[in-house]
Design brief:
InterPro entries: AAA+_ATPase (IPR003593), ABC_carbohydrate_import_ATPase (IPR050107), ABC_transporter-like_ATP-bd (IPR003439), ABC_transporter-like_CS (IPR017871), P-loop_NTPase (IPR027417). The chain is of the alpha/beta class and about 550 residues long. The protein has 18 helices and 24 strands. The strands form six sheets. It has a six-stranded mixed beta sheet, sandwiched between helices.
Length: about 550
């Protein structure tokens, strides 16, 4: 790590801001950050755009003191700075709102706010001062939070407000938001954007880390694109999503999914009747779901993460027990069948956590491509593996699914996230399926791989397979779905078409029934149209008046 000179440098307008020069961070042979230069200035929202694994979060963890750089320097308002831990970063005015909230669920908001710097003395906690701090910050920044609420009882969007207030409580000038929208509904995302704009207008510097092009264009004042650990360029918020995607990936990418109408089977291939599933604690997390998926259609299950989607998918595979209800595949009851039995019945499964559940990292590409069929013909002869058939199958699938690997003998752990996901999908689609369940199929995958994976999912639907996709990405849901089922707290709120607006879907994701969500969205839309017409009329009047004055 480069030593930071401790001499004081005068602060002036030229030196104001947070400036990173030549920041390099290595993990063994992997260079996560490669000589990165970055200027973060007060009064700006600076978006760091890049795919998962590009090095964005590593860079911000260096800035926040969670990691130490191997090379490079940081200055804050012209003064050399190093953060050996988050406490030193906070002392320098740097705050971070993490993607995964750093809150203690069983503590109140006030207790979380002052954790580590508790007011009071002689071993007595001054909760009155803690509550007053929460109220003062809530009023100042327009972030309404009850200081006495227990965090686990708060909606996710309010929990994020607590995270923001924690950073502001330390008088942070530089605020890092690391993928802050991953667990929010569209309405909560809009609220967060409004909060970030107000903080910017107060003179705060905002670093917004994301891979979502829509959000970047909505909020950024400045955009820096990072690819494979390097800054590859800057962009403007007015640039199209296609232009931003090309800069991220390094080639032109189609962001639309080509999808034609297909013939849907008369009978459902997958049927759920009053299905309930319990979580590890015994609490019901999937609550009396009725659902069916027909051959030749994609049904997407949408919702904020943590509303029972994961447990539902795992129960269909047979990993998690169904506590009540019935599951049928092509008319055959598979309730609480083992994973081997459901796979043999014609179910394909792409798990949401591929590294944990989708492959064996130390196994080769070829081995992973037959992971669930290696003991069957044509890959086995008696108790012996047919290595020639396994290799020829791997060669064919690597070409068909465009898996970028040096060799079929390469360990899957060494592949990029997108290529790892291609291995998982290729394995599942290499056999005849009745039903394909894909949970978060493009999580942690670059834009180019997303394009390919979407094409293959649609192609499988076109073959007559019933495809059930669980996704928290609304753009993905709208692009792929023939029908959308929205989950909230373990229940299906409603099932709607793919042309349903983001606003309606967002309200449903917050638990609003379908009819009410549609009515509310219609009312809001009418009000917005009226406001736009009034603004246009006012502009015309002012323009006419200015013309009269000029004459």
């Amino acid at each position: 790590m480069t030593e930071v000179i401790s001499e004081t440098v005068p602060t002036d307008a030229e030196h104001s801001g947070l400036r990173l020069r030549g920041i390099t961070k290595r993990f063994g042979s992997l260079v996560a950050n490669d000589r990165i230069d970055l200027d973060i200035l007060p009064g700006e929202i600076h978006c760091l755009l890049g795919e998962n694994g590009a090095g964005k979060s590593t860079l911000m963890n260096v800035l926040y003191g969670l990691l130490q750089p191997d090379e490079g320097t940081i200055t804050v308002d012209g003064r050399p700075h190093t953060s050996r831990n988050p406490k030193e970063a906070m002392a320098a005015g740097i705050g971070m709102v993490h993607q995964h909230f750093m809150l203690v669920d069983v503590f109140t908001v006030a207790e979380n706010m002052v954790l580590g710097r508790e007011p009071g003395g002689a071993g007595v906690l001054d909760m009155r001062s803690a509550r007053r701090l929460v109220r003062e910050l809530s009023d100042r920044y327009g972030l309404a939070v009850d200081p006495d609420m227990v965090v686990e009882d708060l909606p996710v969007g309010v929990q994020q407000r607590v995270e923001i207030l924690k950073a502001l409580a330390n008088d942070a000038t530089y605020l890092i938001f690391d993928e802050p929208t991953a667990v929010l509904t569209p309405q909560e995302i809009d609220e967060l954007i409004a909060v970030m704009r107000s903080l910017r207008d107060e003179g705060k510097a905002i670093v917004f880390i994301t891979h979502k092009l829509r959000e970047v264009r909505a909020i950024a004042d400045k955009i820096t694109v990072i690819r494979r650990g390097k800054v590859v360029g800057t962009a403007q918020p007015t640039d199209s999503e296609a232009e931003l995607a090309e800069l991220m990936v390094g080639r032109a990418v189609s962001l639309t999914v080509a999808k034609e109408q297909t013939e849907v089977s008369a009978e459902p291939r997958l049927t759920l009747q009053d299905v309930s599933v319990a979580g590890p604690s015994g609490a019901i997390v999937v609550d009396g779901i009725d659902l069916d998926v027909r051959g030749g259609e994609i049904l997407c299950v949408a919702g904020v993460q943590g509303n029972g989607q994961t447990e539902l998918a795992e129960a269909l595979l047979g990993v998690t027990p169904v506590t009540s209800g019935e599951v049928r595949l092509d008319g055959r009851v598979i309730t609480n069948a083992t994973p081997k039995q459901t796979i043999d019945a014609g179910l394909g499964f792409v798990p949401e956590d591929r590294k944990h559940d989708g492959f064996v990292g130390s196994f080769s590409v070829a081995e992973n491509l037959v992971l669930n069929t290696f003991a069957e013909r044509p890959y086995a002869k008696g108790i012996a593996l047919d290595l020639g058939t396994i290799r020829s199958t791997a060669d064919r699938l690597v070409e068909e699914f465009d898996i970028r690997t040096q060799s079929i003998e390469t360990p899957v752990s060494s592949l990029s996230g997108g290529n790892q996901q291609k291995v998982v999908l290729a394995r599942e689609l290499s056999r005849p399926l009745s039903v394909l369940i894909a949970s978060q199929p493009t999580r942690g995958v670059d834009v180019g791989a997303i394009e390919f994976l979407h094409q293959r999912l649609v192609a499988e639907r076109d073959r007559g397979t019933a495809v059930l996709i669980v996704s928290t990405e609304l753009d993905e849901v709208s692009a792929l779905a023939d029908r959308i089922a929205v989950m909230y707290r373990g229940k299906i709120v409603g099932i709607v078409g793919p042309d349903t607006s983001r606003e309606v879907l967002g309200l449903m994701m917050a638990g609003v029934p379908t009819d009410e969500a549609m009515a509310a969205a219609t009312t809001t839309s009418a009000a917005e149209e009226e406001a736009a017409e009034l603004a246009a009329a006012r502009e015309r009047v002012e323009s006419d008046a200015a013309g009269e004055d000029a004459r």
